[in-house]
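Q: I have 374 residues here and want to know how they pack in 3D. Can you give me a structure?
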Amino acid sequence: MDHLNPIITGIKMKKVALITGITGQDGAYLTKLLLDKGYIVHGIKRRSSLFNTQRIDEIFENINYKNKRLFLHYGDLTDSTNIIRIIKETNPDEIYNLGAMSHVHVSFEAPEYTANADGIGTLRILEAIRLLGLTKKTKFYQASTSELYGMVKEIPQNEKTPFYPRSPYASAKLFAYWTVVNYREAYGIHACNGILFNHESPLRGETFVSRKITRGLANIVLGNQDKISLGNLNAERDWGHAKDYVQGMFLILNHKVADDFVLSSDTKFSIRNFIIKAFEKIDVTINFKGEGLNEVGVVASNSGKYNLKEGDVVIDVDPQYFRPTEVDLLIGDSSKARNQLGWSPSYDLDMLVKEMVDNDIEMIKNKKNLYTIN
């Protein structure tokens, strides 16, 4: 087990971070950030019959070729003994809990698993920190979510806005949020919540609406599909880039006082707006016609770069994608993070959408399945 706590020049230990959900979008960007800062990084990944490390394969190969500083462990947030074992073996200075059943719509179909992994999973990690005597050593970051606000009580939403979760996912995250606060106050653990609003990237999972739009667009213009079917086009969200938000995670956890922070762009756009911007990046104008379930997005003009004809229906609405309880509007107020942490996003929505569209067209055109983190 010598690799678990390497000594640098025999004098100074490198900081050690443990990331749950390391193979996800945020886990990949955070891994690169921490490795660039000189950390040794351990990640927990779930066992699967399929390879699911595409987002971090390039990092793993580049870092471990010269200097082994990235290690993966099989584990699951529903398994207490496994969590305790990994934390004991890795003895981390920082734990970033990014692992979750994170798809809101799916949480309605798997509510018990969602509660177990997302809610009680957080409790398991904090209890491991306590039981292993790491309360003064190990800092803990919890990936919280703007979905906590649900049926919003004020606009915009900040750290003092009352929560009103509207899904099993959000309810589980609410349990996790207050568990973090409780363990911070009861045991003195440096434990923090990052209440992050929507953050996307080319690494976003393909079932999430932003990536569904950009990947669907790429498939349409390359002749692989005719249209994208979506749910509530009126839903408004605060969109940012995951690269900016993992910088915020690091700043939150390394703030001198353990506290909870909202990270957001402080702007809002509807899903319909996101679609319009995505098609604008390939010089195609989309108009929307009809209402409710009969609304469609139609090609109004095309520069000719891609073979799309005026009048083509490229967006329609499918009721299967509506949630049982909708969240219509989320927009953050990140002034606390900006003032106390010096954090601010470097991407706006246009930059984010362009990067995602360009990446998906490139991936599909070249049949490239590997992700590259810039």
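Q: Anything worth noting?
A: The radius of gyration is 21 Å. The chain has two domains: 2-202+239-266+328-347, 209-234+271-326+358-365.
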